[in-house]
Amino acid sequence: MAYRVLIAQFMHETNTFSKLKTTLDDYRRRWLIEGEAMVPHFKGTRNEVGGYIDSAAKYGWEPVFAVAANATPSGMLTRETWETIRDKIVGAAKTAGKLDAVCLSLHGAMVTETEDDAEGALLEALRGVIGPDVPMVATLDLHANATVRMAKNANALVSFRTYPHIDGYDRAVQAAALVQEALEGKKTPRCLLSQPAMLEGADHGRTTQPGLMRDLLAKADGYEKEPGINVVSIQAGFTWSDIPYTGPSVAVSHEPSAEARAKDIARALIDEIWRRRDETTADYRPIADGIAAARTKGDKTGPLVIADGTDNPGGGGYNDTTPVLQALIDARIENAAIGTIYDPVTVQQAMKAGVGAEIEVVLGGRTDPAMGAPVKGRAIVKMLSDGIFTNDGPMNAGVESNMGPTAVLRIGSIDVVTISNRIQTTDLQVFKSQGIDPLAKDVLVVKSVQHFRAAYAPIAREIVLVDSGGICSPDISRLKFTKLRRPIWPLDGVNDPYAGAQRA
Ligand SMILES: [Zn+2]
To answer: Which of 73, 110, 227, 320 is in Cβ range 3.0-4.6 Å of 342 for a Cys bridge?
Structure first.
């Protein structure tokens, strides 16, 4: 008899400081795929679900597909959204008959109108259905605000080890391999979690250059080779979330005999995160530095990439702030392209006018004009499309993305990819699919803080990360926390990472 394994995905990185609630329509705009339809959508992709599909085939499992749901980061999920998708997964477990295992793809920083720890609640509900002995694993984003409740209800939490996140497939394969060993009776994994009294840490998980996160992961790789230690995951946390569990954590999946060693490992890693808490590689600069770099090309080739990191929709940014666009216009920068500005109203205006028309636009700056007024001026409609493209990768290679109805508007010498679904700029296809050759531009602006580097660093002559005053500002003094566990570093005078912290 083949093992019956439930496979489901439910992802969201929730910025609780966003005024935009996350709805079922937001999921439909990215993906909300039920049952067997998950197979053609994800088979052959580098997504976690692709990893689970291939693993099920490799081990001869009989997969039970529940749902795959993902939405661009934004504010809290509405109660209806959370309960609808949760119930699809828990309902699938209830009606599946005998289940031998559960493989989940989660984020770990999802917050809803009714749940501060949504993944913990989901895992607990599933555990209630499948009972204590059925193995259940979950992949997590390395920006998870992971909780003890998640760890108690899962047999392993397997977090990404790359930022940009290009190893979703590999982590699912790792999680599935542990499930197979558990099914064969070779392992009985348990999971523990430890979280220090820290709001930020581990350099927000950046792995593009040598440094703290890479050092931590190298140690985690070593620990995973020890007998009785199955998975060592380091979550850097997601700062823009006003819940008790925000911040870095370490999850260790271990055999019952190795519990003491697992606790020592978690403690050693947290001690290092604490000791090196001031190390950060993020280099936010004023917009003026980006403009200066645009004016000094020298003999370097390739575009300058200005990363508008504080309006990154991948962190809940509104994707429509205008200070960078306005600065480029004011400085008369030529041959530039912006990917992207979210403004469905202007897209509709462009669609009515048609390709080649010249229109008077009031572009962007609609969600919170305090972060930059709309850009006013004349624009030529260069191209119109449905905004759907397939990612080249490395991130999410093969996965379809949907920017919604899209218009390329030329303002002066700047092409603005104007979209109707918020989406982080991670792939060159954001431009290429819109008839813009990114290599032929002098300046590219991306709405992303880190993920863009996987595809854009290889072509960029230089990268400048700017703080344009968006919602994802690195200045945490701008964030008003009311639910966070206290005391916590760096907001309070904390001298001990275990002070009042959520403990394993
Ligand atoms: Zn992440």
So the answer is: 320
- Give distance in angstroms: CA of 311 to centre of ligand 1: 15
- What is the enclosing helix (H) or strand (E) of 298? none
Cα-to-centroid distance, 142 and ligand 1 (Å): 5
Q: Identify the structural domains of the chain with CATH numbers, from first to last.
A: 4-275 (3.40.50.2300), 287-473 (no CATH)
pTM comes to 0.89
Whole-Å CA distances, 17 to 135, 206, 235, 242: 35, 23, 21, 8
Task: Write out the H or E segment, with its range, that includes residue 398.
Answer: none
How do residues 162-198 score in pLDDT, each as one tens digit?
998 999 999 999 999 999 999 999 999 999 999 999 9
Tell me: the pLDDT tens digits for 68-121? 999 999 999 999 999 999 999 999 999 999 999 999 999 999 999 999 999 999
* Ligand 1 geometric centre to CA of 141 (Å): 5
Q: Which two tokens stand for residue 371?
A: 């972060």
Asked whether the beta carbons of 51 and 168 are under 8 A apart, the reply is: yes
115 Cα: distance to centroid of ligand 1 (angstroms)? 20
Query: CA-CA distance, 432 to 71, in Å (whole number)?
Result: 23
CA of 338 from ligand 1 middle (Å) equals 23
